Amino acid sequence: MRGRIRWVLIGWMFTISAIAYLDRVNISIAASSLQKEFQLDNLQLGWVFSAFVLGYALFQAPGGRLADRFGPRKILTLGTIWWGVFTALTALVPSGVAGALAIMLAVRFALGLGEAVVYPASNRLVASWIPSQERGLANGFIFAGVGAGAGVSPPLITYILLNYGWRWSFWVSACIGLIAGLVWFLLARDKPEDHPWTSPEEASYIRRGLPQTSTAAGTTLPWLTILGSKDVLAVTLSYTCYGYIAYIYFTWFFLYLSTVRGLDLKSSSYYGMLPFIAIAICSPLGGFISDHLTRRYGKRIGRGGIAGAAITLTAVFLVLGTQVKDARLACVVLAGGAGALYLSQSSFWSITADIGGRSAGSVSGVMNMGNQLGGALTASMTPFLAKHFGWSVPFFAAAALAVVGALAWLLVDPKRELIHKTTGDLA
């Protein structure tokens, strides 16, 4: 372990990432049970999905700023406690109570606030602990947790739901999150030099690999500097499109398999894992490819090129998946779309860590706010489009946005470093 403590922390961030997605995807697996118990139609269920994503989106930038100011160790610990509490509260909404929908909306919104700190805080950790040449792979492993957590959710939540009821699925998820947060607090430190397990050799290796922006004097970038950056705005636009696509898988895919493609609950739980298995494989694979191409050809190709190509490929899979008649083959094709999408994932976070430096949490928080607003839109727009135009149209809309997201990367210059240009403006 000594000499590789940075990868131990990345490994535990993978675990936290997986649990965070378990806590958000469990409601889509239990959706039918919630609809029956609280008399919710698809549009109302979409509001519940969107409430979480809205809270999650609105607190991205503030959560990133908190991680920049107080460190990812404390902020992630507080976040896991918060979301553990509100995951449990989801299960405590009583059956038949007046205003159940309003209570559910408030609880899910609050849960989103707590989970919002996860990835901006992890990016702040990456900015301090991971040399630039390893950031693609590090972010790839962190976001492989998305696939792992979301992939484990269908069979796990289905088993608990069938044997113990939907409420127990939320209580179990809450307990797992609280345990992960405790381990994180004991294991993590904000900087390599603060950790007792960091060897002098590893500390020196990390320092040599950090961009100059990461070690420049100063604290955090002003919001106007971040929001005025063309690169941040372009990456945010692309990540907003990305979020719209991703949330089809996280909110409606399981229900799509059971109600549209006609798979039973057990089959849906297994085939519903395919996109998330693809995500778990393609996220670190994309990071590895990105790091390799960056070392050989520079960040323009290694970060922007791989992202644009992967998101374009996603559009192809989405269109083809809706045209396949066989339900199981359609699952495989659409899973390919999720995998292609996550080949680009590490590029977004590596770029914001590089250009953000000490403000990596804030910069990535702004970017991820766009991602989650895109997700909130798809949570509500998907049932609307499906109801009025059929279920192929939501996937066509996602494919069109994939093209927009790919083109946005043409506007990003990875060599423009925010702190270098604005050192005198740091506050």
Q: Largest sheet at a glance?
A: none
| Total number of helices | 21
Number of domains: 1
Q: List low-pLDDT spans.
A: 420-427
* Estimated structural class: mainly alpha
CATH superfamily: MFS general substrate transporter like domains
User: What is the residue-averaged pLDDT?
Assistant: 87
CATH topology: Growth Hormone, Chain: A
Shape: globular
- Distance from N terminus to C terminus (CA atoms, Å) equals 37 Å
What is the CATH C-level name? Answer: Mainly Alpha
Q: What amount of the residues lies in strands?
A: under 5%
Helical residue percent? over 70%
Going by CATH, the architecture would be Up-down Bundle
**Total number of β-strand segments?**
0
Computed Rg: 20 Å
**SSE order:** HHHHHHHHHHHHHHHHHHHHH
Short summary:
The protein has 427 residues and is an all-alpha fold. The chain has 21 helices and no strands.
Features:
globular, about 80% helix, mainly alpha, Growth Hormone, Chain: A, 21 helices, disordered C terminus, about 425 residues
Give a written overview of the molecule.
This protein has 427 residues and is mainly alpha-helical. The chain has a single domain (5-210, 218-418), classed as MFS general substrate transporter like domains (Growth Hormone, Chain: A, Up-down Bundle), CATH 1.20.1250. It is 81% helix and 0% strand. The chain is globular, with a radius of gyration of 20 Å. The two termini are 37 Å apart. The model is unreliable at 420-427 (pLDDT under 50).
